[in-house]
Amino acid sequence: MKQDESYKSLILDNEHATCTPKITAREQQILQLCAKGMTTAEIARTLHRAESTINFHFFNLREKFGTRCRHATVLKALKLGILTHT
């Protein structure tokens, strides 16, 4: 299986991919940093927040997007146009 296909399989609900969840400015910022390849620790240092706070935001994002992991969340955000390629 190609890597790209395996990431696509992480998205739980492709049928409802057109439903765009409302996310906060902070969640948007965290998604952008994650999309750039930053780890939780790096994002926490960049935003001057605790790692637990970043994990809390990721939990909320996964709930809103209906995804299992941050990689799938970023992919779904890209698909929905919430994130753009940088």
CATH superfamily: Winged helix-like DNA-binding domain superfamily/Winged helix DNA-binding domain
Measured by DSSP, the beta-strand proportion falls in under 5%
CATH topology: Arc Repressor Mutant, subunit A
How would you state the average pLDDT, rounded?
85
Distance between the termini: 26 Å
In one word, what is the shape? globular
Structural class: mainly alpha
Oligomer: single chain
In total, the number of strands is 0
What does this 3D model show about the protein?
With 86 residues, the protein is mainly α. It has one domain (24-86): Winged helix-like DNA-binding domain superfamily/Winged helix DNA-binding domain (Arc Repressor Mutant, subunit A), CATH 1.10.10. The protein has five helices and no strands. The protein has helices spanning 3-8, 25-35, 40-47, 51-65, 70-80. It starts with a helix and ends in a 6-residue tail after the last helix.
Question: What is this structure's SSE topology?
Answer:
Blueprint: H1 3-8, H2 25-35, H3 40-47, H4 51-65, H5 70-80
Helix pairs in contact: 2-4, 2-5, 3-4, 4-5
Q: Main traits of this protein?
A:
86 residues, mainly alpha, Arc Repressor Mutant, subunit A, 5 helices, 0% strand
